[in-house]
Prior knowledge:
By secondary structure, this protein is mostly helical.
Amino acid sequence: MNLLSFDLFYAKRRRLVSPGDRILRGSGANRTVVVGAVAALACGTFLRLDGLGHKLYTNDEATTSVHVSGHTIADYLAAARGGRITSTAVALEYQHIDPATTAADVVRSLALEDPQHPPLFYVLERGWEGLGGTSVPMRRALPALFGLLTLPAAYVFGLRLAGSRVFGLVLAALVAASPFQILYAQQAREYSLWAVFVFAGSAALLGALERPREGRRWAVFTALTIGGLYTDVLYLYTLAAQGLYVAFLHRDALRSRALPFAVAAAAALAAFSPWLAVLVSHTATLTNNAYLGTPLPPSVFALKWFFNAGTVFFDLDYLWHATAVVLLPILALAVFGAAKMRRRPGAARYVLALGVVPAIALLLPDFAHHESRSTAARYLVPTWIALETAVAFGIWTLLQGRSARVRGIAAVAFVGLVACGIASGAVAATRQVWWGDGSVAPIGPMARIVRASRPPVTVIFRDDQPIWNFEPMELANQVPPDTRLMLLSGTALPGRIPSRGTVLLLDPSSPLRHSLAARGVLLTRLYAGDLGETDDLRAQRRAASAARARHGFVDVPSSLWSAAPPKALR
């Protein structure tokens, strides 16, 4: 039996070693691939675990911490507006676990304010922080460990998909070196766990379809599907892709294979139905990413997609031209791999469904409603996994060539891809901010200004902006705990500017600045949010900001000002 044929999935006496593996044994290309893969796995492991506290703590991560603490954002806002948050130390209490709360409070918090984020990761994160503490590195350590679990999961998926240990190793190495995977393995969010479930759930499905009468395999698939759904609601698209794959691939075997899949999927959906009910009943709260519900200029929209795809393999932040140079040959390799997959209909159709279904599910509403949600790279984890799989398949196909020259080219291409990914991760590791959440970029320089200011330091901020300004929560992780905080609600003005120490205004509105200036307060701008950006990036941001402004979503530029009281009061 030819194990490279479609019957690979369903052979009664299957061996997980392909003829290509036997061809590669002892060849120079094989040794190069093995050495490159081992280096990628080692470097990828290091980059996921190193410097977990180096990058600035983002808005999304601060939101995670508030929910994990057992509080809600509404609790935090009420405390700030009620004057109970008087320093960064007090503000951080809403990012640390409150012993008076339980995991049930975490679930309740998400249900009330963030139902699009199911509770599995957040409950696990609370347990993790309860064991190891609530420092920023500890908060990020659990997703980093999930990022490491992605590597064996990718290997097993590759083994199931192609029946080849070499293919599994190539795929795991590409995932290990992927800048996108490394970036989100170091964020205190659920995306690395989501990737684990996509790989593991896919491998479990292929294993269950291979032996559809073994209930144990379907039980494993059901359990992993439930885990995936309770990690991210968008896992529904992965389940839909799997359903399409089973329905179209097994039209002649609906009873033996599609029926068990339908039962397993129905059981998973039934287990997830309580959270689906929460999601449906709280649709009015799904507004924290409403800025993505606005259109972007077509050029910006296309560039974002192009850039996001590139970060799967190569990433030097928003250097568009460098990304293009590397991405174009990668896409050519992916197309080649997809074409060669046609010889294996099972593999081709699964990878196609896995990648295309989530992409279409996000693109169609964008086109229909003139939105831009599909430009958020983190929403397309399965699509990027499918892209990695297609590229790995192209490399693996070339590695099986009879010509030593072709195998050598494949090995060089593989090593080059791995090197690009690892180099990207190494550069990103030196930076406090990367593209994954550029909105936190102002926190670094503003925190340095606060730390260098003459104490006592008072930071005044207000909540009259179109959306709640989360910068004080981000800033609290970067400045001394005795830094004073003063919230101005609505149009209120500070009763008196403190005459001792340093007074700083965080993102003051124009009316506030004019009112203070009229009272004789000397204002000096210390930081403006767009300083240090390249011309290309500034142009892209301004185009996107202008498009959002036309639909009522005003981007408030970050700024920090010093405020000195009138001379008579000094």
